[in-house]
């Protein structure tokens, strides 16, 4: 696992976002300045990470296009980095599907699940690897074991039996991280994402050690909107605690206002609304027998998984609005002319905000990672700022949505408070592979009567593809914010949050 480590891949992503943001803030000649970014990030004549400086720059150019919201260029045609930039150079949401893309020139074409004998093999007399192989795929050649890949069924018995740990299991990290088997191979063995299977959780992106997978960004268009002025309001997800160094709520709010936002609200407001709604749904629909179980609706990748792979369960997904949408709609009731920007840890929220039923509510989506780059490009250090007011008030229940199990815990607390005579049965799964298993169990009737929370990212929202800090550190920070909240759960009658 490379999550949470400050790797060169993470730094390169940050550099690209920062340079694109700087162009958006400062440039008088966008085409020239965008074309120059690969040369700023990889200066001189000596490559930093690859065998060729030209390959590094070619890969960087594709990252720049994705950061602009544009798609990759064709590999077999001469296309400028800035081709199509006129459509992208706007102050409104811009999205060219698909969201997640593999940069072919960056992919190392990793082996797809195979066992390989390493130099640790000593050609021992016992050769247990040969003896345990059920298909006779291992033979001794020149005093060492060799695996016939055509015969190997990848059972792993040889690896388990070797006393020298001489047999390695090679795999494709992006495919291992994908819980819906959306990673396939092209004709050259490079990774390719099947858009019909992908639910855009971004786990492939953050687990690729070559940085060959990236999502599209909206920072360029957002900065254009901020430069034009007008009322632009940020709604920030509960997982933001700790994501910007030692900057607490007041400092983060000050930094966002410094960027040009007119106001900042907690998405935990909408989470409070969701917790109340789903508490009522559980009692009214599951306890009363209308539904066998209830699936939470907070995580878009979890919701997409259920609807795409288990279509007969679509009606079991709660009809409650996601916190992002609930908060945005509430804000727009008070500020009908404002643009609302969701700031969070999640890649798939970009896709959710592009749905026909949501696109008028949420105007832009950016991640914590992208926001940090915007701060850097503007020379803003959140730790050095302070606002006189906290980010708008929510309860500990809503703030707990940022960690795995927090959604179910919030709903359970609400049920216990509102319906003290009702027994509630909670299940939660994190990571799409575990979510699939949970849905299979539910389909067979083994989770009847349960409220089931699913999180696409292992660890919950704090483990999202757009986060800045290690998962354990982020988890502790969010749990502390829940504990320190003056209000623990929202009132039973909450249906709309007053923003006054």
Structure description:
The structure is a single chain. This protein is an alpha/beta fold. It contains 19 helices and 15 strands. A hairpin with a 5-residue loop joins strand 6 (183-185) and strand 7 (191-193). The mean pLDDT is 95.
Q: What's the gyration radius in Å?
A: 25 Å
> Which strand-content bin applies to the residues?
5-15%
Structural class: alpha/beta
Low-confidence stretches: none
Measured as a percent range, the helix fraction is: 25-40%
| Intertermini distance | 44 Å
Question: What is the strand tally?
Answer: 15
Task: Walk across the major sheet and give the strand order.
Answer: 10-9-12-13
- Per DSSP, the total helix count is 19
Shape: globular
Q: Averaging pLDDT over every residue, what do you get? A: 95
Tell me the major beta sheet.
Answer: 4 strands, parallel
């Amino acid at each position: 696992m490379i999550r949470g480590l400050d790797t060169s891949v993470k730094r390169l992503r940050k550099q690209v976002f920062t340079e694109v943001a700087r162009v958006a803030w400062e440039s008088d000649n966008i085409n020239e300045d965008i074309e120059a970014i690969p040369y700023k990030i990889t200066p001189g004549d000596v490559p930093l990470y690859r065998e060729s400086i030209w390959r590094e720059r070619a890969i960087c150019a594709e990252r720049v296009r994705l950061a602009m919201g544009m798609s990759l260029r064709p590999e077999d045609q001469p296309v400028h980095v800035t081709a199509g930039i006129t459509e992208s150079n706007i102050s409104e949401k811009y999205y060219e599907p698909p969201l997640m893309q593999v940069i072919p020139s960056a992919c190392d074409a990793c082996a797809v699940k195979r066992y390989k004998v390493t130099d640790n093999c000593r050609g021992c007399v016992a050769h247990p690897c040969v003896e345990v192989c059920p298909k006779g795929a291992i033979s001794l050649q020149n005093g060492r074991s060799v695996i016939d890949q055509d015969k190997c069924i990848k059972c792993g018995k040889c690896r388990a039996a070797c006393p020298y740990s001489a047999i390695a299991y090679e795999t494709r990290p992006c495919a291992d991280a994908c819980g819906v088997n959306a990673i396939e191979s092209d004709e050259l063995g490079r990774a390719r994402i099947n858009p019909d299977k992908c639910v855009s959780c971004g786990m492939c992106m953050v687990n690729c050690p070559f940085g060959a997978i990236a999502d599209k960004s909206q920072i360029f268009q957002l900065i254009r909107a901020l430069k034009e002025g007008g009322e632009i309001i940020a709604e920030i997800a509960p997982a933001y605690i700790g994501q910007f160094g030692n900057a607490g709520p007041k400092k983060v709010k000050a930094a966002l206002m410094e960027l040009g936002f007119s106001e900042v609200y907690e998405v935990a407001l909408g989470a409070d609304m969701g917790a109340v709604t789903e508490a009522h749904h559980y009692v009214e629909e599951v306890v009363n027998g209308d539904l066998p179980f209830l699936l939470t609706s907070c995580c878009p990748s979890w919701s997409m998984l259920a609807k795409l792979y288990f279509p007969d369960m679509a009606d079991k997904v709660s009809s409650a609005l996601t916190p992002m949408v609930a908060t945005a709609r509430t804000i727009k009731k008070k500020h009908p002319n404002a643009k609302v920007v969701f700031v969070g840890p999640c890649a798939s929220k970009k896709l959710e905000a592009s749905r026909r039923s949501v696109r008028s509510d949420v105007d832009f989506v950016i991640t914590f990672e992208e926001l940090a780059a915007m701060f850097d490009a503007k020379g803003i250090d959140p730790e050095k700022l302070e606002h006189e007011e906290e980010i708008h008030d929510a309860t500990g229940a809503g703030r707990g949505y940022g960690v795995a199990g927090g959604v179910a815990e919030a709903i359970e607390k609400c049920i216990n408070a509102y319906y003290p005579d009702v027994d509630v049965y909670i299940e939660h799964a994190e990571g799409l592979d575990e979510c699939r298993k949970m849905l299979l169990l539910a389909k067979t009737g083994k989770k009847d009567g349960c409220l089931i929370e699913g999180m696409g990212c292992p660890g919950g929202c704090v483990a999202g593809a757009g986060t800045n800090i290690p998962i354990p550190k982020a988890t502790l920070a969010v749990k502390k914010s829940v504990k320190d909240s003056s209000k623990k759960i929202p009132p039973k009658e909450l249906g709309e949050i007053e923003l006054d």
